[in-house]
Amino acid sequence: MAREQLQVLDALDVAKTQLYHFTAIVIAGMGFFTDAYDLFSISLVTKLLGLASSVTGVALVGTLLGQLFFGWLGDKMGRKTVYGLTLILMILCSLASGLSFGSTPKGVMTTLCFFRFWLGFGIGGDYPLSATIMSEYANKKTRGAFIAAVFAMQGFGILTSGVVALVVSSAFDHANRAPSYVDNAAASTVPEADYIWRIVLMFGALPAAMTFYWRMKMPETARYTALVAKNAKQAAEDMARVLNVELEPEEEKLEKLAGKPSNSFGLFSKQFLQRHGLHLLGTTTTWFLLDIAFYSNNLFQKDIFTAIGWIPPAKEMNAVHEVYRVAKAQTLIALCSTVPGYWFTVFFIDIIGRFAIQLMGFFFMTVFMFALAIPYDHWTHRENRIGFVVMYSLTFFFANFGPNATTFVVPAEIFPARLRSTCHGISAAAGKAGAIVGAFGFLYAAQPKDVGKRDYTLIVLGCVNALGFVFTFLVPEPMGRSLEELSGENEDGEDEVEAAGESNTAATVPL
C-alpha cells in the first residue's frame, strides 16, 4: 500500500499539460527521429553499397550494446548528463558515415561499418534515456501519450528517409542517365551514384544537431535527482522552475523514503526477482518477438514488393532508379500505415491502455501475416497486387498501433527510478537481438532460395507474432498510476510481500 509521496513528485503527477511537456516531446522525439532515419535509410541504398548486410548488422549490434551501456550509465550518472553524449555520438557518426574514406571499395565499406557501429551505439543510448526522461517528466494522466509521442517521431524518421532518398535519387537519375542492368551491367551504376548514399546517410545529422542546445538546457528529472541522487532541494528547485509553482525540498521525508526496503534492492536481488522478475521477462520477450517481425518487414520489404511485381526486377532497372523505386514504396507504406499507426497509439494509449493495444496489435499482425501467407499464390497475380499491398500495410499499422509502441512505453513506467533506465535498456536490447535474428539468421533460415516464394517466411512471422500475444500476459497495465506506485518506491517495508504478490497478479491480468 502507498503511504506517502514527495510533494515535487505529486506535483509532477497531477500537473496540467504545459509547454514544457511539448518541449520535452520535441527534444526527445528528434533523437528518435534521427534514430529511425539512420537505421532505416540504409535499406534504401543497399544496391549502391554491395555489402549492405554488413553495414546493417554492425549498426544493429552497436545499437544493442549502446542500449545496455547507456541504460546502465543513465542510472549511475543521471539522465541529462548521458543524454548529451548519445546525441554528440549520433551527430558525429552520421556525418562520418557519409564521409567514409578508403583507397578501395572494401576500404570504404570497412570505414563505413566502423562509423555505423558507433552511430548505432549512440542510437542505442537514446532508447532508454528518451523513454525514461519523458516518463519522469510526465503527469500520470497522459504519461502514456507523451512517451508514445516521443516514439512516434520514429515514424516521421522512416518517412523522411524515404522522401530524402526519393528526392536525391530522382535528381541524380535525371542528371545521369544510365542503362538497366540487363542492357549493360557495368554501366548501370554510374560513378556519381556514390554521392547518393553519402548524402542520404549524412542528412541524419541535421535533426539531431538542431536539438542539441535544447537537450543540454533540460534540467535533470526530479525523480532521478530526488530518488536516486537523494537531493530533494535541487529536485524542488528544478521542477519549481519547470512547473511555475513553489515546492518544498522535504529532505526529512526523502530520508524516510530512502530508508525503506523498497528503495534499496538491486537488479540481481531476490526482491527484484519477486517484484519485477516476470515484468522484465515480459518486456524483453515481447520486444524480442516484435522486432523479429518488424525489422524483417522493414529491411526486406524491397524483396517482397519485387516478388509481387509492385517493383520491377532489379535487372530491369539501373542502380539509381532502383533506389528511387524502393524509396517510393517505403514512403507510401510509411505515409499510409506506419505514421498513422504510431499516432493512433498516442491518441488511445491513455484511454484503452497499453495492455489492450499490445494484445490487439499482436493479434492483428498474426491474422494479416497468415492472410498473406496461406493464399500466397493468389496475391502474386497482377490483379491482386493492390490487395496485397493493403494487407501488408495493415501489418505495419497494427505493429505501430500495437506492440512497437507499447514495448517502448511500458518498461519506462514499471521499474524503480534507480533501475528504470537499466531495465529499459535491457528490454530494448532484447528487441535489437530480435532485429538481428529477423534481419539475418531468421531470413536466411526461413526464406527459400526462390525470391518469389515468401509464404514460408510470412507463416513463421505469423507464429512469432502469436507468441508475442501470449507473452503480453506477463506485462502489467500502468495506465493512470504514478511511477512510484507502480514500482513500489513509496511503500512501507511491511508491505513488501503483499506488494510483490499484487505485482505478480498484475502480470497476468490487465488492471
TrEMBL record:
Residues 1-480 form the Major facilitator superfamily (MFS) profile domain. It is a multi-pass membrane protein. One of its GO terms (biological process) is phosphate ion transport. Pfam families: Sugar_tr. GO terms for molecular function: phosphate transmembrane transporter activity; symporter activity. Residues 484-511 are annotated as: Disordered. Residues 486-499 have a biased composition (Acidic residues). NCBIfam families: 2A0109. This is Major facilitator superfamily (MFS) profile domain-containing protein.
